[in-house]
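As the next step, I wrote out a protein sequence along with its fold in token form, included below for the reader:
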Amino acid sequence: MYRIVEITPEHRKTVNDLIKQEWAGPIIVTKGRAWDTSILPGFIALDENKLCGAVTYRIDGDECEITSLNSLQEKRGIGSGLINAVLDVARKKHCCRVWLITTNDNTRAIRFYQRFGFTLRDVHINALEKSRELKPSIPQKGMDNIPILHEFEFEIVL
């Protein structure tokens, strides 16, 4: 069984390596702004001290954005556990909503977020044009060879 803990300095390099591998990180671009995940707070999921997931987030005023989420083992509740940890922090910080961005090619994530309880709030058409100005390493095509063009913004209102 996995456990969820806050990212500590001891875990930071492992998380940074994961984000580099999965996101060409540490820079993540959402809604035309770049964020350095290597300095953001977050949580990790550990199974016998082995990393099996990570989430980073940022709080801006009364909103909380999940900036990155990775589950390395599907169908074990790791992604849900990590999101719930962020929701707990957001509630304690009196945030009115938790939101995140995924791209139009990431159909598995879109299904997951909707099953979890997120609502589609907005679609930012052709947002990846601007994102690639800030992070040229974003590929043109993503999952299932789908062109990566748009940002889907999901939210949970607290």
About this structure: The beta strands are 3-6, 27-30, 33-36, 42-47, 50-60, 63-71, 97-103, 119-124, 151-157. Residues 29 and 131 are 6 Å apart (CA to CA). The chain has a mean pLDDT of 95.
